[in-house]
Design goal:
Layout: H1 7-20, E1 32-35, H2 42-50, E2 67-73, E3 80-83, H3 97-106, E4 117-123, E5 129-133, H4 152-161, E6 167-173, H5 179-182, H6 184-189, E7 199-204, H7 215-223, E8 235-236, H8 242-246, H9 251-264, H10 266-269, H11 279-300, H12 302-314, H13 318-334, H14 341-346, H15 352-369
Parallel strand pairs: 1-5, 1-6, 2-4, 6-7, 7-8
Antiparallel strand pairs: 2-5, 3-4
Helix pairs in contact: 1-11, 1-13, 11-13, 11-15, 12-15, 13-15
Length: about 375
């Protein structure tokens, strides 16, 4: 297997390998949804996460439909892509993908904007995981059905947000204009049930903020998790600029430039914890929040827990028991470590504290029963 360039994909693939050793497990994997207002940097951020410049970055493009980007691990061979709307035609020249996505978005005869553009990419560098790039949200009253196509993306985002297993990566562009409007997506999310505990905020366009600007005070509230508290605290990112993209800056070079940017602006960002600044911090936080949702899903599905308990108590195969322990420990070790006080203070899924305790007791129980006699 080719060496993964991205810690996140490497961890997901390692977990999938563990799962595949026990065919009885049917663990659901979260989808990662990128949401925010128009031009907040969703597509650019997604391109950086996957390390491929295949998404159109065009402010004049009217994004109508969600893009479901299904990454598939390829054991060997050259990478290729397939659009489901185009049948089984393989695309090996990835430079063509942007134009095809743009063509689908610009088609006038599309009446069902909820129908996603589905793009499968097969590569040795990816794990099996789905990203969803959602159209930009506009300001409407949360919970209301859209009255026109401009309002549709907000309604559509709420549908994705209501899926309990989706991780919501919310891009918030930080600049001095219309900041209240740009945080509207957070206000809207408050009406999406319990989805707020599944949001990972990402602050983009931070190179536009100034130390004496009016936006700084509001921005600092977000950084301190004071404005709207989120379990997965936000990350500050400096995306590649238009000039960077025009000059075909590599992701590796972009990370180095981003590091230099934060060093040069230490008066603004020097006090921010290191795990909340930069692309590398985002990848680590993405991994931890992703596995946290897997852990929550296991804890909340009684049937799966009962199966584990039955195996731990009755199955005589020590190797199978040990494999279950490996799976549970992997999830626990890679998931987000957050204070239980968050749930108590903000009354979000108060059962989580007990769930965490149950999960750790489950590992101990199975481990005890897996010991050799």
């Amino acid at each position: 297997m080719a060496e993964f360039e991205n810690e996140f994909f490497k961890s997901v693939h390692e977990f999938e390998t563990l799962i595949n050793e026990d065919k009885e497990f049917n663990i659901k994997f979260p989808k990662i949804c990128l949401m925010g207002i128009p031009y907040s940097g969703k597509s650019l951020l997604l391109s950086s996460i996957i390390g491929l410049d295949i998404l159109p970055i065009n402010q004049s493009l009217d994004i109508k439909r969600p893009l479901e980007l299904k990454l598939n691990h390829l054991e060997s061979g050259e990478p290729y892509a397939i659009f489901e709307e185009s049948g089984n035609e393989k695309i090996t020249d990835f430079s063509k993908i942007k134009d095809i996505i743009q063509k689908f978005q610009e088609e006038q005869e599309i009446h069902d904007y909820s129908k996603p553009i589905i793009l499968n990419i097969y590569s040795q560098k990816f794990a099996n995981i789905t990203f969803i790039d959602l159209p930009g949200m506009h300001i409407i009253r949360a919970g209301e059905c859209p009255t026109n196509r401009k309002e549709f993306p907000t309604w559509l985002t709420s549908n994705y947000a209501n899926d309990d297993l989706n991780l919501l990566v919310c891009t918030v562009p930080v600049n001095s204009n219309f900041f209240d409007g740009k945080i509207y997506c957070f206000k809207c999310i408050k009406n999406f049930g319990e989805s707020r505990h599944r949001i990972l905020p990402v602050f983009t366009k931070i190179d536009l903020i100034t130390e004496d600007g009016p936006v700084l005070q509001e921005f600092q509230k977000f950084l301190k998790n004071e404005f709207l508290p989120f379990k997965f605290r936000g990350v500050c990112i400096k995306n590649r600029s238009s000039e960077n993209l025009k000059n075909n800056m590599t992701l590796k070079d972009a990370i180095e430039e981003e590091k230099k940017f934060f060093e040069d602006n230490s008066s603004l960002y020097g006090k921010i914890p290191k795990d909340e600044v930069g692309y590398e911090a985002l990848i680590k936080k993405l991994k931890k929040s992703y596995f946290e949702l897997i852990k929550e899903n296991l804890v909340e599905e009684d049937k799966k827990l009962n199966q584990m308990l039955i195996k731990g108590e009755f199955i005589k195969n020590k190797n199978e028991k040990k494999n279950i322990i490996k799976i549970l420990k992997f999830i626990n070790a890679n998931s987000y470590k957050e204070s239980e006080a968050f749930y108590l203070k903000h009354e979000i899924k108060l059962t989580k504290a007990q769930d965490k305790k149950n999960f750790e007791e489950l590992i101990d129980f199975i481990e005890e029963n897996a010991k050799d006699d």
